[in-house]
Amino acid sequence: MSKATLPRNTTRQAEGMQYGDVARTLHRFSGAVIIAFVLVHVIVQAVRHVPVFAAANAPWLKTVQEQNWVHAILFFCIAFHTLYGLKLLAGELGFTIRYQTAFWGIVGVSSLFALREMLRYAGI
Amino acid sequence: MPTDIKMRAEIRRYDPGVDAEPHYETFEVAGQDNWRILDVIRSIYERQAGDLAYQFACRVGRCGTCAVKVNGVPVLACQERCKPEMRIEPLTPFPVLRDLVVDRTEIEARYEQHAYAPQRKTEYAGGPEAIDVKLAEHLCHMGSCLACMVCVSGCPAVEERAFDGPAFMLKLRHMAEHPADSGNRLEQAIDAGMLECFGCDLCTQLCPADLSPAQAIREFRRDMIFGGSKKHE
């Protein structure tokens, strides 16, 4: 067994979670969320602060911005995308982290950021 | 004690000489819960579909011949346990010869193309060559790849990009670390699409031989950054 592999049950390979698939999908999803957020942010600033767009000032924007789940997802995505990207970089620089440990570690830390946002909105 | 169970196996059937399109055929199988996928396939072949094409050799997970996809996940049929519901398909992305048998011509051609034998600077002098014990152990482990193509079939980069696949990268790394080899394996790996790898480690998780092609790719990439590939030099 190499330093990157884990002991596992080879008779139940098709039953377990495919960590690589989930991590890659989450990485792409979180990247898309970040891009969408930046785009929306730019549009919102234009609508709110450029006089030409003042007429289009959407009253629902503030409500959307103040949703705790929106912030929780956004913070999770930023943290996950950054940490997973750093994990990939670290691997290429010679620091090997086992895929399962890395996945749960990154999901755990990212969830803490999401939880913090939820608690902040709850006033805790 | 194994218990009797009823299973439902959906098998992808395709005979290029007869069928216009691949189709799925469902079989009800009575067996035991300790059966492997290969036992299920053999049972279907013996009792229900004598024209079912499949292949196997060692039955102990050492030859890699029986690799198939079960419920979308590439596995060795002789190792994976049977399930109450299962969809059995040939390995992707390889061309299908018939039913569960894939054409390995391209795979063999790639192995040949990459020249997976030490390329020596000087002619082999004969006799045993001194080698560090730890390195020998490491090379021996890397050389235990079954060439079952489970990693290639599971690799998302192979599916999306111009990438030969993790198994070939592992073999190239094997040669890159071999003391007798003088070939430029890093360049070969880059030409074979090494930079397209997502680093997702799915190949590591799926490898029936407990190898890590993803680690081999990371080591090649580290060499790209810091230079050098021979650990023993």
Task: Describe, in plain words, how this protein is organized in 3D.
The complex is a heterodimer of chains A (124) and B (233). Chain A has helices at 19-49, 60-65, 68-92, 99-121. Chain A is mostly helical and 124 residues long. Chain A has one domain: 3 helical TM bundles of succinate and fumarate reductases. Chain A is elongated, with a radius of gyration of 19 Å. Chain B is an alpha+beta fold and 233 residues long. Chain B has 2 domains: 4-102, Roll (Ubiquitin-like (UB roll)); 105-226, Alpha-helical ferredoxin (Fumarate Reductase Iron-sulfur Protein, Chain B, domain 2). In chain B, the strands form 2 sheets. Chain B has a 5-stranded mixed sheet. In chain B, strands 6-7 form a two-stranded antiparallel sheet. In chain B, strand 3 (67-70) and strand 4 (73-76) form a beta hairpin. Chain B is elongated and about 60 Å long. Chain A binds chain B through residues 1-6, 8, 10-15, 18-21, 23-24, 88, 91-94, 96, 99, and chain B through 36, 61, 70-73, 75-76, 79-81, 83, 86, 141, 154, 156, 198-208, 210-212, 214-215, 218, 221-222, 225-226.
Low-confidence stretches of chain A: none
By CATH's scheme, which homologous superfamily of the largest domain in chain B applies? Alpha-helical ferredoxin
Number of separate helices of chain A: 4
User: Sheet bearing the most strands of chain B, described?
Assistant: 5 strands, mixed
> Count of DSSP helices of chain B?
9
Biggest chain pair contact, residues each? Answer: A-B, 26 and 37 residues
Residue ranges of chain B: pLDDT <50 for 5 or more in a row? none
For this structure, the quaternary state is: heterodimer
